[in-house]
Amino acid sequence: MARKKIALIGAGNIGGTLAHLAALKGLGDIVLFDVVEGVPQGKALDLSQCGPVEGFDTKITGSNDYADIAGADVIIVTAGVARKPGMSRDDLLGINLKVMKAVGEGIRDNAPDAFVICITNPLDAMVWALREFSGLPHNKVVGMAGVLDSARFSHFLADEFGVSVKDVNSFVLGGHGDTMVPVPQYSTVNGIPVPDLVKMGRSTQERIDAIVQRTRSGGGEIVALLKTGSAYYAPATSGIAMAEAYLYDQKRILPTAAYVEGKYGVDGLYVGVPVVIGAGGAEEIVEIELDETAKANLQVSVDAVKELLVACKGIDSTL
Ligand code: TXD
């Protein structure tokens, strides 16, 4: 069977890590694309030289020409600029919207049948703009944020309860920003809901609230430490999990920035919700019962995303 083809648009910190992970996992042949000449080619050559050590024969190439992404099965987009200390994700909008226009047109013209995972920030607006510019079906364009945010939430919860991350399933809804909605009620340790663990005295509400807040500012915490950029190992790992769900038709329910039409009281925008991801892309949006607090918090997140879309339309009148 012919190998799948993975195109990575953006060969920076996340792009290079995506390529390394995809190669190690044997997901398919890899094309690293970037506008900077030499970077995708250099990283591709370096990564290819892992092959003899790891034993993978996948072809890894670098390119500055969109024609080379032709026929890609999965495209993961990290093109754009990342945050520096003191910057919010929303501060990136002006620059990255123009990047999404170029990337969207490149995908439209060369790989319209791909499943596209957008990672570029501000994520909820950039995935919407990328879908608009590319013209691909809404179920074939999604955003990666919730898998990362819930991984951060799960990591902190596993630490708090002194348990294996294997047994922690956590739930984050809403946008990839300060308004994201970690949902302890739907977060469990091997099926035991977090609120029950608090009642059992294994933590306190205050400590869980602090973990929720630390999850919300998880990206900023790393930007402040790194000073030169933002997180890239866990974002790349999260993007790869979504790509695998599509490539292997896993029907995973993953927190995903998906196009919502009607569910959760949302109509016509991308927001982080539980989505079944399989060979059909975003196959189904799973609508769960939310308590009043989670509903209100989700609405705040949706309103914040709507403001970003207004800003996008103010910059690019074709949107
Ligand atoms: O959870 C999430 N979605 C976030 C997303 C988690 C972490 C980082 N998040 C965002 O991903 C971050 O705010 C950035 O917007 C993207 C990529 O982050 P990364 O750390 O990979 O940024 P880099 O290292 O600066 O890489 C960006 C690359 C760089 O090589 C540029 O030359 C390239 O993008 N770039 C372009 N490639 C193609 N086309 C265009 N126009 C272009 N402009 C820049």
From TrEMBL:
HAMAP family: Malate_dehydrog_3. It comes from the Bacteria. This is Malate dehydrogenase. Keywords: NAD, Oxidoreductase, Tricarboxylic acid cycle. Signal peptide: none annotated. Coiled coil: none annotated. The lineage of its organism: Bacteria, Pseudomonadati, Pseudomonadota, Alphaproteobacteria, Sphingomonadales. Residues 148-307 form the Lactate/malate dehydrogenase C-terminal domain. InterPro entries: L-lactate/malate_DH (IPR001557), Lactate/malate_DH_C (IPR022383), Lactate/malate_DH_N (IPR001236), Lactate_DH/Glyco_Ohase_4_C (IPR015955), Malate_DH_type3 (IPR011275), NAD(P)-bd_dom_sf (IPR036291). Residues 5-143 form the Lactate/malate dehydrogenase N-terminal domain. Pfam families: Ldh_1_C, Ldh_1_N. Belongs to the LDH/MDH superfamily. MDH type 3 family. One of its GO terms (molecular function) is L-lactate dehydrogenase (NAD+) activity. One of its GO terms (biological process) is lactate metabolic process. The active site is at H176 (proton acceptor). Its EC number is 1.1.1.37. It is an enzyme of class 1 (oxidoreductase). Gene3D superfamilies: Lactate dehydrogenase/glycoside hydrolase, family 4, C-terminal, NAD(P)-binding Rossmann-like Domain. Substrate binds at R83, R89, N121, R152. It catalyses: (S)-malate + NAD(+) = oxaloacetate + NADH + H(+).
